[in-house]
Amino acid sequence: MTEQEIGICNRIKELRKCIGMTQTEFGEKIEVAQGYLTNIETAKRPATEKIVKIILLQTWNGKNVNETWLRTGQGGDENMFKKDFPN
What pTM, to 2 d.p., does this model score? Predict the structure, then answer.
């Protein structure tokens, strides 16, 4: 796997832990088995583009994941979620 793919795997694990979900709960929400999620989180398998898009489309504790953070890690953990802007 590439360094970028490993980074995405690590950030998926960070996201799951940040929102306080088990692998089983997180896997159900993104429609993958817990064992498959384990392989992603331990960088044994890359996260497919489909999985990345599902994560980006979901709402996590009322927030959406920042795509740039998930794909690149840019901005660090404080940019894990999109910022809400007042109307």
Answer: 0.92
